[in-house]
Amino acid sequence: MDATLEDVTRKKPEPTAEQVAEELVRRAREQGLSLTGPDGLLKQLTKTVLETALNQEMTEHLGHKKHGRPAAGTGNVRNGTRAKTVLTEASGQVGDRGAAGPGGDLRAADREEAAAAADRGR
Known about the structure:
Helix content is 44%, strand content 8%. The chain has helices spanning 5-9, 17-30, 41-62, 108-120, and strands at 84-88, 92-96. Strands 1-2 form a two-stranded antiparallel sheet. A hairpin with a 3-residue loop joins strand 1 (84-88) and strand 2. The longest helix has 22 residues, at 41-62.
């Protein structure tokens, strides 16, 4: 055997955004999934990005991860999820099951910021 510990533990380079997109498109086509439309890849990907962004914002706002332990006495807890619809230029209406905050809803500014972040990413 010629492999060294360094060879075994060396990380592979991260794929580029273009390589990731090519792989997603390839898989979608293999599965017969359209790229656009109400159930297309673009809409599903937009939904996933928005949900992830909103959940990360909630984690930052509350100071703990989902199912994590909140700081003592703060009262900052997640109150489950709540269905929302976000209107994007790229994909139209996108359903979202984002986390609900202490008041049971996300601020409109948070939704607008997440939608703007998704638009900047295209």
